Structure formats: C-alpha cells, structure tokens
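JOB MANIFEST
job_type = single_chain_structure
chain_count = 1
residues = 325
[input]
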Amino acid sequence: MNHPYWAHKGAIRKTVVLRSTPRSDFVLTIISSGTRLASWRQTRKLKNPSTTVDGRTMKQRQPLKNASVSATKRRQVRRKLEIGTDVQTSYFFMLNCLLHSRIHTGIESNHEVYDEDVNVYLAHLLNSHMEASQITAMPDSIATCDADLFRMIEEAGSDRRRYTIYKTNADFLLMSIAVFDTVDKPVFNRPAIFHTSRSTYIARAASYYAHAASHATKLACGTSRIGLTLQKLSDRFDDYVQILTYMRGQYLNLLKRYSPGELFHLDRQIEKVERDQAIERVRDEFLDTYHEWMKTHEDAVQKRLLEQAELLKELDPAFDFQLPA
C-alpha cells in the first residue's frame, strides 16, 4: 500500500491507493474531518478522443442517454469503508492536523533538520491515545518522580526494558505537557516548595528521550532509525511542545475549563478594570469642565462641574472637591 501525501495551495491532502487495475484505480481521499469516504474513478486512455471505448462515435452514443447516465452514476459510486479493514483514518487526521499546526506556528518540516520521521512518530503517538488498550498498558512503566524512574531503571534486567521505560515516560510527559496540559497545576495538600514547574517537566522529557535514543542505538549495535528520531525529539523538544500545544486548541478542542471560583475572580478583575477606565474618563471630563468654569464662571458650567464631581466621588470615594470661594 502506498501512502503519498502532498501540500497544495496551503492545504494538506493525503491519498492512499488501495487497488490498481489497467482501467481503474481505487483512490481514498482522507479529508481533515476524519470521515472515511472513497471515490471510484475510472480512467480510460483513448487513442481517438472522439471515439468511445466500444468504438462508436459520440454522435452514435447520444441516443443512449439513459445508459450514459447510468455509467456516470456507477463512476461516482461511494462506499463507506469498514473500520479496521482499510486504513486508520484517525492516524491521517492526526498527521493532517500536525502538519497544519507546523505551518501556522512557523515551525515547518525539514526547516533546520530532516524531521518528517518525527511527524510520523508524533502522529502515531497521538493516534495511540485513541485506543484504550494502549493507555491501560502504560501505568506499569510510568514513574511519578525521578526517584521512582531510577529505581525502575536499576531493577530493569535488560537494555530493551530500560529503553521502554525511558521512551514511555518521555511520551507520557510530552502528552501531559503539550496535549492534556495536566502539569504545573498546584496541589493543595502539598507545600508550594515541592511544586514542580512546567519547565522542569520539559527538561525531564527531553532528557528521557535522549536516554531512550542512547539505549536504542546500543540495542541496534550502531545507527538506529528510532534512535535518531528520539534524539531529534530531545534536541528540539520545545518546538514540538509548541506545535502540539497549538494543535490542542485549534484542532483537538482540548480547552481549559475554568472552575466557578476562577470565573468569580475573573469577573471581579474585569469589573475592576472597567471601573478604573470609567474613573479615568470621568476625571478627564471633570478637569476639562473645571478649566472652562475657571475662565467663564457661568452657572450652567458650574452646575455641570458639580454633577461630574458627584459622579466622580461615587466611583472613587477618596475623591473630594469643593468650589473655590
């Protein structure tokens, strides 16, 4: 099965050729919504453009209008692909969103180094979190802190086990930081001095990927392709976090929900900003009116001045004004 993809006018399209015959090919177009649709396209090479396949001219085929319509309908037949039998559409959807996110963040593929292999790795990682079996198998290798990780590494009986531990923990931290945003949250029953910052988790994940790449190279007794991919992730970890963070909000719609308490404080802050802006506006109007009254001493201007002074005192109780004698 061939999996080519290309960019055209800023949009990414992916095409999978499922079956090819001398007269027809079955082309599956994966669109960004993740819907599995297939289109049957028949292509026929004609030596004479004015002659059809059966040798008759176009004029001879005009009476057969119903037959022509039926043939057109047959060429436009679409069938729904069965899940698990053709392709994993979710994988192509993740890859499509990832490539778009790289374009919008300005971190395009192969800009500094060749990293299309990293795109494939990240798309598979995102897609694996859609399978419950993949998630339930992770806790056996996940460490809650560095001490637990070092203990697991010491108890590991082989380099392959160490490679799996480092890689699993790095993947877990990458998804927690960039996609699910579950790190850097305060724990109320833990002192603030023990709080771990987001930058610390990022440094840990990059270090874990570097260790996993080292063990992969050791297992391969030389150059390892997965080792090179993991090393690229380690070297430019901040860039990939930025890409996945953009993808989280724009395409996966994994947005942070505010608690009722946070919304309450947010409303109070907005009200404070609006009140400060209103005080500044009324104070400017009051000073303009006061300057006008000092020049004219008109009763109408004095009345407007007193009204503005009263309004300003309501907004700012610390304000006080008395007309000069």
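[summary]
The two ends are 95 Å apart (CA to CA).
The chain has three domains: 5-80, 89-250, 276-315.
exit_status = 0
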